[in-house]
Design brief:
146 residues; mainly alpha; 7 helices; 77% helix
Length: 146
């Protein structure tokens, strides 16, 4: 196959070339020499990319402050997000604890109300044998302010 490539190249050199043939030849050579591209070092690839983008070391030196500022902003954002997330978790935990205390308080309050009712107190006193305290049979009077 290599002999065929060399013969093809010789034939192309004898024929006058126009721009289209030159571009086809470059593409063909790029495809044939693809193995050589794989053997290049990583630094050469980076250099090629930087040259294609027309970026050189001077540009990085000039933009070093901006890049450092962007990096600092990213670090601050990540730490702030982590701290905010921890605070949200703590807030949810405290809210659940508050709900538990609220329900316990309501339970104790209803138990206290039940034990402090007049009928309950009278039953407890009768069960203990204390008969000096009794409920009134008179209706409750309502005082009005004129």
């Amino acid at each position: 196959m290599i002999d065929n490539i060399e013969e093809l190249e010789k034939k192309e050199m004898l024929v006058p070339e126009d721009e289209e043939q030159i571009s086809k030849k470059k593409i063909y050579n790029a495809l044939v020499n693809e193995e050589d591209d794989c053997e290049k070092k990583d630094m050469e690839h980076l250099k090629d990319v930087l040259q294609a983008l027309s970026i050189n070391g001077l540009w990085f030196k000039r933009q070093l402050g901006v890049l450092a500022l962007i990096l600092l902003g990213i670090i601050i954002y990540i730490t702030n997000r982590y701290q905010a997330q921890n605070e949200m978790i703590e807030e949810d935990k405290l809210h659940e604890e508050l709900q538990d205390w609220k329900y316990k308080s309501m339970t104790r309050n209803s138990e206290l109300t039940l034990r402090c009712r007049q009928s309950q107190l009278e039953e407890q006193l009768k069960a203990m044998g204390d008969s000096t305290l009794c409920s009134t049979n008179d209706p409750v009077y309502e005082l009005t302010n004129d």
